[in-house]
Amino acid sequence: MLGDEEDVFDSVTWESPSAPYDASDHTVQPSGPGFKQSTAGTEDERGPHDPKWEGYLIVTVKDPVKELAETKDAYVSYLVSAKTNLPIFSTPTPFSRRRFQDFVFLRDHLVKDFPACVVPALPDKHRLEYLTGDRFSPEFMERRRLDLHRFLERISRHPTLQRSTLVRAFFESTEWHVHMHQHLAHPPGPEPTPGLIDNISDTLLNAFARVRKPDERFLDMRESVDKFEDGLVICERLWNRVRGRTNGEPTSYQRKGVSEAERGGGLAPGEDLTADYHDLAVAVQGLGFLESGITDPLNHFSNTLLEFSALLRHKTQTTTDPFLVHLHSLLTYSHANRAVLKLRDQKQLDFEELSDYLSGVTQERDRLSAVISGHAGSTGLGLSAYLKDKVDSLRGADDDRSRVEKMRKLDIKIKELQDAVTTAHETSDAFSDETLREQTIFQYTKEAEMKEMLGNLAEGEIEFYQSAMEEWERIIPVIQRIRVDV
Fold first, then answer.
1. Fewest CB atoms within 10 A around its CB: which of 17, 126, 145, 400?
2. Cβ count within 10 A of residue 144
3. Which ranges of 374-399 does DSSP label H, i.e. alpha helix?
4. Are the C-beta atoms of residues 304 and 464 closer than 8 Å to each other?
5. What's phi and psi for 140, nearest 5 deg?
6. How far apart are CA 123 and CA 457, in angstroms?
7. What is the pTM of this model?
8. Which 8-state DSSP code applies to residue 42?
């Protein structure tokens, strides 16, 4: 319903209200972690839809610790720390310990406070580990730490979110629970008041309607998002297949209970390169017992196969799995960007539907005016107006006095609708401008993450092949020492 959307939108502040900051008052040249930033010296070079960074915020999530370990209320806390030159922070190196629920609160309220901003999603909490008790295992806590680090990193790269009072309190506050209650009681921005828009029927404003005058700029953005997500899905499917063929253990999808069809195809039994090299090593070692003259070289060759099998498993754990997790996380981040584009369309749709509603009420008012003045036929409203007059006549509501009273009410309603249409138009335009800035920010962040993600993958592959070459090069002299009598 439009009223709900307006409630969310009314609380937004395009520039963080709690961080009044004039870049011209500071001579520090901000530098950021892998994304473009504007400074006071380049103010004239910025376009109307270019984002504005006031400084940097470099974040870290580390040191997961199990709290209340011997109780049923046990949980994991993480040390969150940052380095920043943003003036909203009271120290350049804030830090605190937070649990997963604190991250959830931060994310949920950033979405409410800044509905036009692309707020990244958090990792899903409803996993099998919560049922089996493995959520306190070192492997799970490390995966969760990486996910939370990536979440905060995306927020730190956003010029508006990085300067919000909630983010500052998340890093600095020693009384975080008190701050959460205060934020719930006194959210930033003006409190939305119910008005005419809240009372319009859902049959008029519904989420299934389509924008009648789409903006080509946002159509191109949506098409770009579609292509990007399709590419990520294909990469994810192919790399999961590669992972399964290399290491036959369950993939991250299987651990989350995703179906075979959703993974895009499964593996035949025995398609496990790591296990195949291990079995080959055992077979070669068996040959060594039969060939007494070359037992030692064959044992060395068997050990090389075992080392290569271990390298494959190590590469899966340290390179392939983190790459797949990052790839899926980037896909969910793109979904958040898509949601902002959809919300922008809803704002435009609200304006279009309100305009149509105003037009219908105005026509009804003109019809009544024509009937009273005796020129009903000149209104051109046709059969529907004639039938309505007949119905009103049968109900005894066709006298001029009732028509004048109805016209008075319609005049009041028209005035309210005109104000609502003006507000909806301004809201739609403002949201569109902010969405254009958000797409630029998302593009910066996406490029930085893809650079990091592909760089880590390339480094992991190089490390694997270098180690593999060293193992195989060591076995060549051993094999060459085998004497063959002709």
1. 126
2. 22
3. 382-394
4. no
5. -65, -45
6. 21
7. 0.76
8. G
Contact criterion met (CB below 8 Å) for 63 and 170:
no
CB 311 within 8 A of CB 464: yes
> Under 8 Å CB-to-CB from 232, ≥6 apart: which residues?
327, 330, 331, 334
Single-letter residue type at 485? D
Per the structure block, which two tokens stand in for 279?
């079995």
Q: Which residues contact 472 (CB under 8 A, 6 or more apart)?
A: 304, 308
The tens digit of pLDDT for each residue in 277-316 reads 999 999 988 888 887 778 888 999 999 999 999 999 999 9
DSSP codes of every residue in 252-285:
HHHHHT--HHHHT----TT--HHHHHHHHHHHHH
Instruction: Output the pLDDT for position 407.
Output: 84
User: What percentage of residues in the chain have a pLDDT greater than 70?
Assistant: 73
Q: Is 196 exposed, middle or buried (0-12, 13-18, 19+ CB in 10 A)?
A: middle
Report whether pLDDT(14) > 50. no
Whether the CB-CB separation of 464 and 327 falls below 8 Å is answered with no
| Higher pLDDT, residue 22 or 360 | 360
